[in-house]
Amino acid sequence: MPVGDPRWSADSGASGAQPDLTADLGSTQFEPGWPAAAGQGGAPGQAMPATEPGPAGTPSGASADAATARPAKKAKQNRSLARELPLLVIVALVIAIVIKTFVVQAFVIPTGSMQDTLQINDKILVNKLVYHFRPIHAGDIVVFDGSGSWNAPAPTSGATSNLLARAYDDTIRKVFDSIGGLFGTPIGQTDYVKRVIGVPGDHVVCCNAQGLITVNGVALHEQSYLYPGDQPSSHPYGIPGQFNVTVPPGYLWVLGDHRGISDDSRGHEADPGNGMIPEKMVIGRAFVIVWPPSEWRILPIPATFEQPGVTKSGSSAAGASRVAATALPVAVSVRPEAPYLPVAAGFAGAVPLTWLRRRVLVRRSGRQSGTGRS
Hints:
The radius of gyration is 42 Å and the shape is elongated. The chain has helices spanning 10-15, 22-27, 62-103, 159-170, 172-181, 340-373, and strands at 104-108, 123-127, 141-145, 191-198, 203-206, 214-215, 218-219, 243-246, 251-255, 277-278, 282-291, 297-298, 335-336. The chain contains six helices and 13 strands. The longest helix has 42 residues, at 62-103. The chain has a domain at 97-153 and 162-345: Umud Fragment, subunit A, CATH 2.10.109. By secondary structure, it is of the alpha+beta class. The chain starts with 9 loop residues before the first helix and ends with a helix.
């Protein structure tokens, strides 16, 4: 207390008794800067924060600002994700189109001309890149477009229109077919699946004295892949079983594994190419059966085609054929399967790319915000 406080009497000072301040505390008027109640910290001359509590459970001051910012940030992130979802879909479709056009495509087997290697309704994957790195080999199972060789070519109206048509077919049409193929079978496509027996320059004969097909004088032992009960020379009614051909440059001689019902090169000798199919029309090599799971397996080249002297030369391209499992030969095209694999691969590639892009943008935004605050 200040010196000279009237509460200090001479008598009390003389006797050593302490003043009774208990009663005064209740009435004492604290000066500004003193704590308002017992237990509150503070020092004389220091003002306490002028914050008043809000409604029950509601933060005040900086806490309220942070609580308000959290839902705003979440809403912003949701809007950002909604804006980027279309980008994710577009990236996935682009990846799917690239995969389907240049890498791998699925086909379904509708008939029995390649039994027992390929069964009806088997789904196969076709490698579309392999023939950019190696020539087509005898023994490959190929998928090819039969337009112009096994199927009549589309009519044209002159050289100019041919040039325009070729330019369209090589550019815009391929893009449209790839986009349409993501959601179903391309209209008007005539794809087949067969096994390559002869490549450019090969002399293929059926049959020698033992009833075996020979390629460049080397006999093929085909029991491992021919349909049970078929012979190499087995053929459908109306199609010759005997042949003696030399494969010209740029063409392939192909047969089905179910010789007894297969409408293959033997049945198209009156067509352009004399039954051969152009290498440039080959789509790719069938390399695996993916459905049903019980039939899953790789499709290798049979060992008989690895004999020295069988293959004289090769080239590059893609191809295939198919036929019905009936007594009479029927030229039935293989169906491009709904492209679940390319679409799935597209999304599998698009998701991490989109996530990485978001991370980069968030970090960049954080750096810019930090610069602004400093």
